[in-house]
């Protein structure tokens, strides 16, 4: 296997491998499938342009789609965010979320009568 910068390290794989069914024997190594997904995410390439070093794009897409439907990606994301927050000394769950009006773009229709002075003309 070619060493792509998007490939998971042994430590990274040890953390996320518990989210996958590793007991069943498969034709393709799940780590290589996840590496294929990481390559796609990092490069933004099309599924069919996945390099031949990875399992075929159809196999990689099948697993990605299956894990997406089972919410595996969301579960991993939530757990990893909580671990990182705890590691840097923060509460595992954020207590506040702030959205700045300047950072949220609005369309002409949605922004016509919004804001503190909406009734004044």
Describe the structure in your own words.
The chain is mainly α and 121 residues long. The chain is 41% helix and 0% strand. The protein has four helices and no strands. The chain has helices spanning 10-16, 30-43, 57-69, 72-87. Helix 2 crosses helix 3 (57-69). The termini are far apart. The mean pLDDT is 85.
Q: Could you write a compact summary of the structure shown?
A:
The protein contains four helices and no strands. The protein has helices at 10-16, 30-43, 57-69, 72-87. Helix 2 (30-43) crosses helix 3 (57-69).
- Compute the separation of the termini in Å: 66 Å
> Structural class, from secondary structure content?
mainly alpha
pLDDT averaged over residues: 85
Tally the beta strands: 0
- Counting DSSP H or I runs of 4 or more residues, the number of helices is 4
Topology as H/E string?
Answer: HHHH
Radius of gyration: 21 Å
Question: Outline, from the CA principal axes?
Answer: globular
Low-confidence stretches: none
Helix percent reads: 40-55%
What does the main sheet amount to? Answer: none
- How much of the sequence lies in strands comes to under 5%
Pick out its properties.
globular, 121 residues, mainly alpha, 4 helices
Topology overview:
Elements: H1 10-16, H2 30-43, H3 57-69, H4 72-87
Helix pairs in contact: 2-3
């Amino acid at each position: 296997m070619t060493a792509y910068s998007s490939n998971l390290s042994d430590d990274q794989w040890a953390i996320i491998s518990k989210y996958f069914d590793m007991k069943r024997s498969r034709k393709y190594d799940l780590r290589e499938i996840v590496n294929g997904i990481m390559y796609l995410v990092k490069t933004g390439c099309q599924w069919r342009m996945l390099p031949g070093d990875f399992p075929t794009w159809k196999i990689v897409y099948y697993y990605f789609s299956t894990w997406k439907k089972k919410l595996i990606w969301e579960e991993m994301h939530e757990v990893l965010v909580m671990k990182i927050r705890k590691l840097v000394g923060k509460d595992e769950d954020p207590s506040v979320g702030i959205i700045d009006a300047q950072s949220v773009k609005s369309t002409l229709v949605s922004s016509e009568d919004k804001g503190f002075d909406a009734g004044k003309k």
